[in-house]
């Protein structure tokens, strides 16, 4: 059963591009589009914030929306979500914006209505942090840092 998430169009241009939806039965993410009136250039090694024209009201602190890169855009044009993934908390009601980063040397032009990222919904577990002077269990790894589990 699908959960219903209240969704609001905050930029009328989105009506021209279509409300984002799952493209196939097996899709994990909803494609977000660039809700812009004119093409926007992203210079090499630069970031740009691109609006999606969409706002959501998750209403459930047990859910988070995650903005992820589109694999084809990254592979073919070196364009990815700038901070790795974007987090949309359940109590945020503003327009979803996507920070796009150009890892390439050349400019990339984002066109109006272009699919720029994916929106996924995932469960959240909030924890209470308990400060202790030492951990009650010991692991084989201990405090070993990056690469401490062996060689690849």
From TrEMBL:
<dbReference type="GO" id="GO:0006226">
    <property type="term" value="P:dUMP biosynthetic process"/>
</dbReference>
<feature type="domain" description="dUTPase-like">
    <location>
        <begin position="19"/>
        <end position="150"/>
    </location>
</feature>
<keyword id="KW-0546">Nucleotide metabolism</keyword>
<dbReference type="Pfam" id="PF00692">
    <property type="entry name" value="dUTPase"/>
</dbReference>
<dbReference type="InterPro" id="IPR029054">
    <property type="entry name" value="dUTPase-like"/>
</dbReference>
<dbReference type="GO" id="GO:0004170">
    <property type="term" value="F:dUTP diphosphatase activity"/>
</dbReference>
<dbReference type="InterPro" id="IPR036157">
    <property type="entry name" value="dUTPase-like_sf"/>
</dbReference>
<keyword id="KW-0378">Hydrolase</keyword>
<comment type="similarity">
    <text>Belongs to the dUTPase family.</text>
</comment>
<dbReference type="GO" id="GO:0046081">
    <property type="term" value="P:dUTP catabolic process"/>
</dbReference>
<protein>
    <recommendedName>
        <fullName>dUTP diphosphatase</fullName>
        <ecNumber>3.6.1.23</ecNumber>
    </recommendedName>
</protein>
<dbReference type="InterPro" id="IPR033704">
    <property type="entry name" value="dUTPase_trimeric"/>
</dbReference>
<dbReference type="GO" id="GO:0000287">
    <property type="term" value="F:magnesium ion binding"/>
</dbReference>
<dbReference type="InterPro" id="IPR008181">
    <property type="entry name" value="dUTPase"/>
</dbReference>
